[in-house]
Amino acid sequence: MGATEEILIIPSVLPADYSQLGKAIIELEEAGVDRIQWDVMDGVFVPNLTFGPDIIASVRKDTSLSFEAHLMIVEPDQYFTNYVNAGCDLLIVHAESTRHLHRSLSKVKEAGAKVGVALNPATPIEAIENVIDLVDLILIMTVNPGFGGQAYISTMSSKIRAAHELATLADHEIEIEVDGGISASTAAHAASAGARALVAGSALYRHPDGLKAAVSEIREIAIATIS
Ligand code: DX5
Q1: Topology of the domain covering 2-226
Q2: Where are the chain's structural domains?
Q3: Per-residue pLDDT reduced to its tens digit, 143-169
Q4: Does residue 108 have its Cβ closer than 6 Å to ligand 1?
Q5: What is the rounded average pLDDT of the residues 60-87?
Q6: Which one is catalytic: 17, 39, 42, 54?
Q7: Protein residue with least CA distance to atom 3, ligand 1
Q8: Exposed e or buried b for every residue in 28-49, given b needs 16+ CB within 10 A?
């Protein structure tokens, strides 16, 4: 028990047209995505700056889909309430971003959100073995965070497998999510290793047949892999 078996397609809003963000969110929902990921970056934890809570709050009304905040920021504890109040119901905290990961993850729960923990490519799975009881999701980064359009790091498959194993042994449901370089050509690799939630940005927005076709193609490839 523990690991989920359906395939979720979760768009990163990073490549969207920010001048029409509400429209972009509606288009993603129409394309059949399962929830929306906001890549929150502070220019310190990663060399890029993106979405504050007010931007997310401004489009909360445009969809009923869940919002997840991928917090690529230092001192994340300061912002949990802000992102929950902005409409995010899942907060993903990087193990590398806080001195006291167990306390930070507990604080996300106290803020009223579901809890995810993320690992950068160089961080071993052992870093989260002692907080598995607190999390609803494990995010294995398959690129070094900060930018979209990077190449999938295929050596992450063993860590995805280890995360899936941890989830299977857990006494509650834990979703295994991957983020970075997910496309029609890498979805099978990630799903066969145990990923069930696939975050994609550039592969969705660059698809020649549009968002809906991209979402369907990646989902069908992943489902065929685990069937
Ligand atoms: C990295 C970002 C990206 C983004 C997806 O910090 O988290 O992984 O969500 O980007 P693509 O799908 O273009 O690799």
Answers
A1: TIM Barrel (3.20.20)
A2: 2-226
A3: 999 999 999 999 999 999 999 999 999
A4: no
A5: 98
A6: 39
A7: 148
A8: bbebebbbbbbbbbbeebbeee
